[in-house]
């Protein structure tokens, strides 16, 4: 089965991991800092905190933003459920705003109608790797005193108006799952420009431990002493995985170039295929595509999905609108809440896209899809 996404592992990746395994530090060692410093090169210098997954990154970001019980978090429904679930687990009320019909990204006009004095955060999702409209969202957040969060699980290496993803929001989260552009097997990160948000993120990912005597309440206990002032969790990404991520970041430029080539080929080869809408790109955005999401028209998405997979091509659907999961239905969310997101979902199909996809494999995808729709 040709997958819709997969990791690209080289011998340099293997050697980087092996070097750590031969050393003294498997976790909480020097590879963690090196990985975070290298990642910050891709965020325009914004400091980064590595964590155990993209979901952990969202949890850490919401804690750093000060999200608490009774707050509201406005976000897109067209995302993996973790974007909303991590806010709900902190006691926030998740408010879903509809998406733009072409990009699938959060619609600033829809957000404007939903921001209230209780809005603590607005979380944009860079769907498929295309950055959201951050200037418009910033103009809504700042007057409301809301924190702007970017779920950039799809968009590492992308740029918006010549500014890198990671520098556009108050907090940015990344995912390094194997299907993403860069992988640490499992892993994620939070980028935070504000020193206080960065401090909260660092502390929360390490049990909330306070080790600096200057910040402790009983600093003279002894050199072993550490304190917890606010609860945290163990979200530390170990050196073994950071070593893999560091090696992967060294190839991010090449990953982006190859994905761009494949996107351009899809655009050209599928342009005249009937019953198909291709993804769009804003003129002011330079996306690093994680997905190539086409839309299958005339109610044929299920048929096309089944026939493509029967042909050995592992297409995927991204995503069931988050509020349509039963857990949100049990909380009172109902179908019809965001009609554009639901329409997008009903037609969306992600075609294979990953750095090691060959032209011949891509031609097979195109020929099979065109044969079904032709």
What would you say this structure looks like, in words?
There is one protein chain. This protein is globular. The model has no long low-confidence stretch (mean pLDDT 98). The protein is built from 13 helices and 15 strands. It has a 7-stranded mixed β-sheet. α6 links the parallel β4 and β5 (147-151). The chain has 374 residues and is of the alpha/beta class. α9 (252-270) packs parallel to α13. This is Aminotransferase class V-fold PLP-dependent enzyme. It comes from Nonomuraea phyllanthi.
Considering the chains and any ligands shown, give keywords for the structure.
Aspartate Aminotransferase, domain 1; seven-stranded mixed sheet; 15 strands; globular; three-stranded antiparallel sheet; 13 helices; single chain; Aspartate Aminotransferase, domain 2; 2 domains; about 375 residues; alpha/beta
């Amino acid at each position: 089965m040709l997958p819709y996404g997969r990791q690209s592992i080289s011998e340099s990746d293997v050697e980087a991991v092996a070097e750590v395994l031969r050393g003294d530090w498997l976790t909480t060692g020097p590879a963690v800092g090196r990985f975070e410093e290298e990642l910050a090169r891709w965020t325009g210098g914004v400091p980064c905190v590595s964590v155990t997954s993209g979901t952990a990154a969202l949890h850490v970001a919401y804690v750093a933003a000060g999200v608490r019980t009774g707050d509201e978090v406005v976000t897109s429904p067209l995302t993996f459920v973790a974007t909303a679930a991590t806010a709900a687990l902190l006691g926030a009320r998740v408010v879903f705003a509809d998406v733009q019909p072409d990009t699938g990204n959060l619609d600033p006009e829809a957000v404007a109608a939903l921001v209230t004095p209780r809005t603590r955060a607005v979380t944009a999702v860079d769907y498929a790797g295309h950055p959201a409209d951050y200037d418009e969202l910033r103009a809504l957040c700042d007057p409301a005193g809301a924190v702007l969060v970017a779920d950039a699980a799809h968009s590492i290496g992308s740029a918006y108006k010549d500014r890198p993803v990671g520098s556009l929001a108050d907090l940015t989260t990344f995912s390094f799952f194997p299907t993403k552009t860069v992988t640490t097997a499992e892993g994620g990160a939070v980028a935070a420009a504000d020193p206080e948000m960065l401090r909260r993120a660092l502390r929360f990912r390490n049990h909330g431990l306070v080790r600096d005597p200057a910040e402790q309440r009983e600093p003279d206990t002894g050199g072993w002493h550490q304190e917890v002032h606010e609860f945290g969790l163990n979200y530390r990404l170990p050196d073994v995985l950071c070593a893999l991520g560091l090696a992967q970041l060294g190839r991010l430029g090449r990953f982006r170039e190859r994905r761009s080539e494949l996107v351009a080929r899809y655009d050209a080869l599928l342009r005249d295929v009937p019953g198909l809408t291709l993804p769009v790109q804003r003129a002011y955005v330079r996306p690093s595509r994680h997905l190539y999401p086409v839309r299958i028209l005339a109610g044929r998405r299920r048929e096309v999905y089944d026939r493509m997979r029967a042909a050995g091509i592992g297409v995927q659907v991204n995503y069931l609108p988050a509020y349509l999961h039963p857990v949100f239905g049990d909380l009172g969310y109902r179908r019809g809440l965001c009609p554009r997101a639901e329409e997008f979902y009903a037609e969306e199909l992600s075609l294979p896209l990953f750095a090691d996809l060959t032209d011949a494999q891509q031609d097979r995808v195109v020929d099979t899809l065109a044969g079904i729709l032709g």
